[in-house]
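Recall the central idea of this unit: under ordinary conditions, the amino acid sequence of a chain determines the structure it adopts. In this exercise we apply that idea directly, starting from the sequence alone.
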Amino acid sequence: MIDLHTHSVYSDGTNTPAELVSMAAERGLGALALTDHDTVKGIPELLATAEAASVEAVPGIELSAECERGTMHILGYFIDHTCPILLEKIEKIRTGRDIRNVEILKKLNKLGYRLLWEDVERQAGLDVVGRPHIAAALLERGHVKSKKAAFDLLLAKGRPGYVERDRYSAKECIDLIREAGGVSVLAHPATIYLPDEQLRILVGELKEHGLGGIEAHYAEYRPENIRKFTEWAEELELICTGGTDFHGANSPDLKLGTGFGQLRVPDEALDQLKAAVPPTA
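Accordingly, the structure predicted from this sequence is:
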């Protein structure tokens, strides 16, 4: 059993990388990928703790890409987390997030939702701060009844507290992951709000640009989603990957490795990702 999509306190998860490794070992996982949003700062801790726990560590990242309808994320696997170009580019992403967070707070306060940066910092982890932490701060302040309500009412795209930020294009994300020696995978493609025919064309275009895989197994997928994306992977000769998108206590019913109970990520996905790693110069 493997899980190729998890988050730690370095982005919007609630567990340290060491805790994720311990949980993976307890649940019998053979491999665990850490794919924090736009940061690699948790990878050294992952690598340092995984070997002793007999869990294979997969250094990864999840990059947000430009997307007009819905959201598009590109996962990177077996990246070199010390790659200077990668570090430079994700630092620019972080700067953009910081600017956006300030603008969101300004909007919320103008709307009558009093919120201070200190409120957000109390909810944040060790590195990346984003909308999930602002949602948690709104909840703590009593402005909303749940973090989901914060997004539905205020923070989701199109809502009054939303602020856009600069993102790299999907092709730029693929290039960056390749530059860092990794394999790129389209995460949870169902969050891209396109008709199937257009989405299938998009996936094909990304494959032509160097996309290595598609996340066909995902905790929130119905069987028909899994079948569809598995078929696309076969047709386009993409690696069929998967993961829980584990965030810890933020989604208490979702379990590492199995999601809501039905998820099974094919073990062969790990070997296929390894085989697809670009050769070093």
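Residues 2-81+182-276 form a domain with the TIM Barrel fold (CATH 3.20.20.140).
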